[in-house]
Write a structure and sequence with these properties.
The chain is mainly alpha-helical. It is built from 5 helices and no strands.
Length: 121
Amino acid sequence: AVSVACSLARSARGAPGALRAGNDAKRPGEPWYKLPRQDPRAWLGVVLGVVLITFLMPAMYNFALFNLPLAMCLTLGSLGPVTSIPVLWLMKRERITWQIVLGSLLATLGVALFCNTWSPV
């Protein structure tokens, strides 16, 4: 999620009201602690990212950890690459190839097979 946010900030250089990376983030003479100038929609994205990644995701993972079997919880935790594909397409309009889809599905399947192994009785 952080890499998506960083790449979005890099790709938005030059866009009006966008967060600019590097020395372009502030005007000369402004103190280092002053927040960059962005339109309210950009700040909404920043706030949503912080709330979702910092607070909501760990809370949901802990809830699942206490209420689901461990193997299912780990399998659900490995769905990150699968769920990031639509986000990548929506936010960056990046072309989704079959290799990206196959790789993320194989990674999740590998964790599912590893965690959901059974022993013969």
